[in-house]
Amino acid sequence: MTAKDTVADWTPEDFASKKKELTNKLKDWDKKYVKHAKTVNPEMSVIHSAAMEPLTKLMRSTTDFYYFNELLDK
């Protein structure tokens, strides 16, 4: 996955692998950023946690919606 890739470019065949790759990249970024935020500015840790929660919920709901549509198509 490159920076030019967008979710709109994903196909049903590669959705699971692209989602997994994106999730891993987000987790890696999250670990690095949280470590940085905790050492530089402890208050940022609280803000960061609150900001990332909606993104996490969005990714989960998007995945659930995708698999629900796959079930409806069968």
Describe this structure in words.
With about 70 residues, the protein is mostly helical. It has one domain (about 15-74). Helices cover about 80% and strands about 0% of the residues. It has 2 helices and no strands. The chain has helices at about 15-40, 40-74. The protein is elongated, with a radius of gyration of 15 Å.
What are the defining features of this structure?
single chain, elongated, mainly alpha
Average of pLDDT: 82
Backbone CA Rg: 15 Å
- Report the uncertain regions: none
The helix-strand sequence is HH
Strand content: under 5%
Task: Please give the count of helices.
Answer: 2
The class by helix and strand makeup works out as mainly alpha
How many domain units?
Answer: 1
Molecular shape: elongated
Distance between the ends: 29 Å
Largest sheet: none
Proportion in helices: over 70%
Number of strands: 0
In short:
The chain has helices spanning 15-40, 42-73.
Topology:
Elements: H1 15-40, H2 42-73
Helix pairs in contact: 1-2
